[in-house]
């Protein structure tokens, strides 16, 4: 089967720090970087690609495609424990405590959008989230606490 033209184009790259590259050159226009992130999706094989209309381009994602820029309290968002994650694409996503983990290098992550996309926390967003994290004295287990609700946080990547 012949490949589509867009499959023959070298992939874009999204590095560990969330910077975009096209054929080795850094994308420095913030509007273009935002545009690319807004149009990021996954195909049925789990590969990331930017899709604009019928045009597509694969993306090699070095770490996580999204960054958590902040944490917000949601009034009655029961499924997320009442917290929302503000992402670098401008959206708010429910925080699912079951998908939160801290990697071996100390970087916190979670999953969003039906657990399909990995989110890397910035230092500021983790500082905001840590205000809701407590440790059980007798077990050392970490819990997310919002009001009287206490939700255990996983110790490793889900």
State the end-to-end CA separation.
Answer: 37 Å
Shape: elongated
Total number of domains: 2
Helix content estimate: 10-25%
Q: Structural class of the helices, strands and pairings?
A: mainly beta
Low-pLDDT segments: none
Largest sheet: 6 strands, mixed
Strand content: 35-45%
Mean of all residue-level pLDDT scores:
89
| Spatial extent as radius of gyration | 18 Å
Please count the helical segments. Answer: 2
Side-by-side strand order of the widest sheet: 3-2-1-6-5-4
Instruction: Give the ordered list of helices and strands.
Output: EEEHEEEEEEEEEHEEE
How many beta strands in the DSSP annotation? 15
How does this structure look, described?
The protein has 158 residues and is mainly beta. It has two domains: 5-61, duf1285 like domain (duf1285 like fold), CATH 3.10.540; 66-152. The protein has two helices and 15 strands. It has helices at residues 30-38, 123-130; strands at 12-14, 20-22, 25-26, 40-42, 48-52, 55-61, 66-73, 83-87, 92-94, 101-102, 108-112, 117-121, 133-135, 142-146, 149-152. The strands form three sheets. The protein has a six-stranded mixed β-sheet. Strands 9-8-7-12-11-10 form a six-stranded mixed β-sheet. Strands 13-14-15 form a three-stranded antiparallel β-sheet, with no helix packed on it. It is elongated and about 60 Å long. The mean pLDDT is 89.
Give a brief description.
By secondary structure, the chain is mainly beta.
List the helices and strands and how they pair.
Layout: E1 12-14, E2 20-22, E3 25-26, H1 30-38, E4 40-42, E5 48-52, E6 55-61, E7 66-73, E8 83-87, E9 92-94, E10 101-102, E11 108-112, E12 117-121, H2 123-130, E13 133-135, E14 142-146, E15 149-152
Parallel strand pairs: 1-6, 7-12
Antiparallel strand pairs: 1-2, 2-3, 4-5, 5-6, 7-8, 8-9, 10-11, 11-12, 13-14, 14-15
């Amino acid at each position: 089967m012949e490949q589509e033209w867009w499959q023959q184009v070298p992939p874009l790259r999204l590095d560990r720090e969330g910077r975009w590259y096209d054929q080795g050159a850094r994308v420095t226009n913030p509007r273009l970087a935002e545009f690319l992130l807004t149009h990021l999706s996954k195909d049925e094989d789990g590969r990331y690609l930017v899709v604009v209309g019928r045009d597509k381009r694969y993306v090699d994602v070095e770490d996580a495609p999204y960054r958590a820029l902040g944490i917000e309290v949601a009034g009655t968002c029961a499924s997320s424990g009442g917290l929302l994650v503000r992402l670098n694409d401008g959206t708010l996503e429910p925080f699912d405590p079951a998908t939160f983990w801290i990697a071996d290098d100390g970087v916190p992550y979670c999953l969003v959008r039906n657990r399909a996309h990995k989110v890397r926390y910035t230092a500021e967003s983790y500082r905001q989230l840590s205000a809701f994290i407590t440790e059980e004295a007798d077990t050392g287990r970490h819990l997310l606490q919002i009001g009287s609700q206490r939700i255990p946080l996983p110790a490793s990547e889900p």
